[in-house]
Amino acid sequence: NRHLISAGDLTKDDALLILDTAEELARVSERSIKKLPTLRGRTVVNLFFEDSTRTRISFEAAAKRLSADVINFSAKGSSVSKGESLKDTALTLEAMGADAVVIRHSASGAPHRLANWVHGSVVNAGDGTHEHPTQALLDAFSMRRRLGSLEGRRVTIVGDVLHSRVARSNVLLLHTLGAEVTLVAPPTLLPVSIGTWPCEVSYDLDAVLPKSDVVMMLRVQKERMNAAYFPSEREYSRRYGLDRDRFAKMPEDSIVMHPGPMNRGMEIAAEVADSARSTIVEQVANGVTIRMAVLYLLLGGDTA
Ligand code: CP
């Protein structure tokens, strides 16, 4: 594959190759080798039209650890504010020699469109409510490092599925890797297409928790929320929040995940987020490793 746009485009072999490559890279960095020469002479452009902390910084760190040149583009302060289109912005960056464009955009489908306009590889760093494939890959990598193979593992994803590109990419990738996914959400925060997703749906978090190997809490995306269909914060937290009592219902060897940024005290209690069974900080570190693996596999060959 020349691009990474959707987790659904990855075969099981593709996904395992990325996870195994990330494992090799993690072993290299555990030997205190911080920088590899693999992508010397290549240019990676980070094209961010939406805010980001983890994804933007980890793609930059990943590209630099592979010795690529990195150009960081933020829509704020650019000629996008003068009305320049995505296409013209992309062509401008390509003229500066981009071998890969990492794009985050509020419009679902923007990376797909970009792939038709540029010659380099396009990596989706989150498009609207559609997909965030490198997040799903780093989540799968984090699960595998804690629990071993994902085959038959029961993963529960909880919360604002409607607005979550993380949930969609995780459901697609985890299904491909043989895990059994259950989504738990208020009916008003599930997409109408949910019946076509390869997963189960439940409205009863307390019933699902004791059977979960992994519980992934989603951020309530207030910025995309229409107040008409959101319960009060207190009601949401009471029914769908992972507090201390709910955490106690999970199996002792299960783990808690969150892609960040978190609303502490809303979808997840601070003491749960900070517990030894939380992988939240590991997920961030693993994000650099997975993005190194993705850039290496897309750009490392002779023909890239
Ligand atoms: N998880 C994630 O995508 O975080 P950022 O929005 O900070 O990149």
Automatic annotation (TrEMBL):
Enzyme class: transferase
Family membership: Belongs to the aspartate/ornithine carbamoyltransferase superfamily. ATCase family.
Function of the molecule: Catalyzes the condensation of carbamoyl phosphate and aspartate to form carbamoyl aspartate and inorganic phosphate, the committed step in the de novo pyrimidine nucleotide biosynthesis pathway.
Record field: catalytic activity: carbamoyl phosphate + L-aspartate = N-carbamoyl-L-aspartate + phosphate + H(+)
Pathway of action: Pyrimidine metabolism; UMP biosynthesis via de novo pathway; (S)-dihydroorotate from bicarbonate: step 2/3
Protein name according to UniProt: Aspartate carbamoyltransferase
GO MF term list: aspartate carbamoyltransferase activity
Residues annotated as domain Aspartate/ornithine carbamoyltransferase Asp/Orn-binding: 152-298
Subunit structure: Heterododecamer (2C3:3R2) of six catalytic PyrB chains organized as two trimers (C3), and six regulatory PyrI chains organized as three dimers (R2).
Residues the record lists as binding carbamoyl phosphate: R54, T55, R104, H132, Q135, G260, P261
Binding-site positions, L-aspartate: K82, R165, R219
Pfam families noted in UniProt: OTCace, OTCace_N
Keyword annotations: Pyrimidine biosynthesis, Transferase
EC number per UniProt: 2.1.3.2
Domain Aspartate/ornithine carbamoyltransferase carbamoyl-P binding: 2-144
SUPFAM superfamilies noted in UniProt: Aspartate/ornithine carbamoyltransferase
